[in-house]
Amino acid sequence: MDATLAVDADDVHDARERIAGRVHRTPVFTSRLLDRLAGRSLFFKCENLQRAGAFKIRGATNRIRSLSDKERRGGVVAYSSGNHAQAVALAAREAGVDARILMPSDAPRAKVAATRGYGATIVEYDRQVEDRAELALEVAEREGRVLVPPYDDPFVIAGQGTAAAELLEEVDGLDAVLAPVGGGGLLAGTATACEGHGRGVVAWGAEPAAADDTARSLEAGERLRIAPPETIADGARSTSPGELTFPILRERAAGVVRVPDGALVRAMVSILTRMKLLVEPTGALAAAAAFEGILPEGPERIGIILSGGNVDLGRMAELVGEHGEP
Amino acid sequence: MDATLAVDADDVHDARERIAGRVHRTPVFTSRLLDRLAGRSLFFKCENLQRAGAFKIRGATNRIRSLSDKERRGGVVAYSSGNHAQAVALAAREAGVDARILMPSDAPRAKVAATRGYGATIVEYDRQVEDRAELALEVAEREGRVLVPPYDDPFVIAGQGTAAAELLEEVDGLDAVLAPVGGGGLLAGTATACEGHGRGVVAWGAEPAAADDTARSLEAGERLRIAPPETIADGARSTSPGELTFPILRERAAGVVRVPDGALVRAMVSILTRMKLLVEPTGALAAAAAFEGILPEGPERIGIILSGGNVDLGRMAELVGEHGEP
Predict the structure, then answer these.
(1) Which of A61, A124, A128, A164 is surrounded by the fewest CB atoms within 10 Å?
(2) Is the ipTM of this complex over 0.90?
């Protein structure tokens, strides 16, 4: 373990105890047909079946359940137009903590409604003119709230690592665990869990080909920033890996592969028709890398984190139409 | 137990032992959101995640694994354009038994390909001019094969009852189990499992409103035949309950409720967006009855059999378009 890194395996262990009973231990599924397609044995960790539809509730719960009494009374604030918003809202409500969520004024109505449905107050902002992270810091300071960042936080990273920790406990003899990469919170937690598990299991990331800030940064050996990317994987449109996540990935992840959008749609369709499971584009990143041989040869028994399932059906139909049903 | 009925609880018990390890013990899922929608506690038995995508593999495996050595050598024959075809093909291949499946010449190519993919020989027939049951009997006689009927067979009924038996073992204190009704094999097995379980748990059926041959027959106290029905629930278009299934339903089922097609589409969409699970129209019958208050009041803790998930995405998109996304 490197003492300069933000999170180690003990933190993932503590996170598991802290969130136990508050999030689902999601099932692990297999499919002979999809194994044949991939030419390897795949074990799908179904975080699309997680509470609020994604792994994000793990990190949010771990962060919020670590607040001091004083912090709890002050409440939390977060910014997100996606799964992190709903996760923070739900985790906060269940902990009896007030939550304020910054969402762009053009966010999908369904997501705003779901977040409000979990009891959070929504603050709208104009994403053309306002910087959401800065706005959130202002709210945090002005109202005495704790900011719950989407990935660059030790408790959030450790919480996200619990999915891989469960998978490693449940499936013997895995060679690798493959996870989607946006800001890197899930992969950093996953890589930390793999290192803690020992036995040579390695963590790989899968990133949209058009949003390959983390792959590029790892190749360059330093955090690079890319222009705002165009990809259907809306949970992985980050432009730079995190300040805390990047050093962890450099040290503990085996690498990050690039997945084209077309492969994501094909993977979503395969998972829906073969496994009867709905995954969102970002949630299909790791599976797509395995199905289409994008992951280097070597690992034979591979854990795949299906990270989320929040996509509306109209959008799903559109994607399948544009990219062609296989 | 009524000795004149084709199947009793011991047969379901024997079926469980016979098919153990050959079919999935499917997971049981719950959803707080859907409980709120239904106003009751629902426990979803996910047979859409079953091998070959539906509960049918249970009955087919139980029948084929009960063949004598001589019968095994002669092979089996079945007729179906749907899930039973794939189930018999798969169960036969795994038992090393040759299978011939009669499918209409206008059956969806994907279903024919899947059935052939499991190693069965397909015999096409023209459903405008030929009677498939008669054709199958001819093949059985000419080639010395055993016919595996879709529902009217003691081994098939007992096999289908194993889904409810697993559910009753897993979830304490159920008041009722709700299952789709076509020819009545699944409901007859379910009702038998409920009776065997004791503790007052009752079985209800859910039938398409336009294909209510079983509801009408139960009301009349005798098997009635209806005209070929128009419903999107293609697995429940039977025109009359079975000779063996009907007396079991009369004796052991609490009743059968009628579900309009619109409610099926709404249920499919709710299950897909809330639970991230794909179910076919027939597979959503029981859930729809619970969501829309079609089931009489009384039972509070209800097992719902999601019986299958084989629907192609184009068809799914069409249905959602026609009936309107809620």
Answers:
(1) A128
(2) yes
Asked if A313 and B48 come within 8 Å (Cβ–Cβ), the reply is no
Tokens 């194993």: give the residue.
Answer: B162
Selected for mutation to probe chain B from A276, A282, A313 (highest B CB count within 10 Å) is A276
What residues in B contact A269, CB-CB < 8 Å?
A: 313
Judge contact between B42 and B305, C-beta under 8 A.
no
Mean pLDDT of B281-307: 96
3-state class (DSSP) for residue A151: coil
Supply φ then ψ for residue A257, to 5 degrees.
-105, 160
Question: Residue A273: its chain B contacts at CB < 8 A?
Answer: 278, 312-313
The model's pTM? 0.94
How far off is chain A from B175, nearest CA to CA, in Å?
Answer: 25
CATH topology of A9-54+153-323 equal to that of A57-147? yes
Digit-coded pLDDT (tens) for B242-276: 999 999 999 999 999 999 999 999 999 999 999 99
Looking at the predicted structure, is the pLDDT value of residue B54 above 80?
yes
Task: Indicate the Cα dihedral angle A9, A13, A18, A24, nearest 10°.
Answer: 110
By the 8 A CB rule, do B205 and B249 touch? yes
State the distance between the two ends of chain A, measured CA to CA, in whole angstroms: 45
Domain spans in chain B, listed from the N-terminal domain onward: 9-54+153-323, 57-147
Q: How far is CA A143 from CA A73, A126, B181, B277, in A?
A: 11, 21, 58, 41
On whether the A57-147 domain is CATH 3.40.50.300, my answer is no
Six token digits for residue A35: 């194994």
Q: How far apart are CA A196 and CA A164, in angstroms?
A: 11
Interval A98-124: pLDDT, tens? 999 999 888 878 889 889 999 999 999
Q: Which of B48, B313, B320 sits opposite A320 (nearest CB)?
A: B313
In this predicted structure, the answer to whether residue B52 has a pLDDT above a threshold of 90 is: yes
Q: Name the pLDDT band for B326 (thresholds 50, 70, 90).
A: very low
Interface contact A278-B269, CB threshold 8 A: no
In CATH terms, the fold of domain A9-54+153-323 is Rossmann fold (3.40.50)
Whether pLDDT at A323 is above 70: no
Beta-carbon separation of B273 and A313 below 8 A: yes
Q: Which residues pair with B147 in a beta bridge?
A: B77
Minimum distance, in Å, between the CA of residue B317 and any CA atom of chain A: 7
B239-243 CB contacts, 8 Å cutoff, 24+ apart: B239/B211, B239/B213, B240/B213, B241/B183, B241/B184, B241/B213, B241/B214, B241/B217, B242/B151, B242/B152, B242/B183, B242/B184, B242/B185, B242/B188, B243/B152
For A325, the closest of B48, B309, B314 (CB atoms) is B314
* Contact call for A325 and B309, based on CB within 8 A: no
- Of all residues in chain B, what percent carry a pLDDT higher than 70? 98
Chain B's closest residue to A277, CA to CA, is B277
pLDDT of amino acid A318: 85
Where helices occur in A198-309 by DSSP H, the ranges are 213-220, 245-252, 261-275, 285-291
Residues of B in contact with A325 (CB under 8 A): 313-314
Q: Chain B contacts of A279, Cβ < 8 Å?
A: 276
Verify whether the Cβ–Cβ distance B325 to A317 is below 8 Å. Answer: no
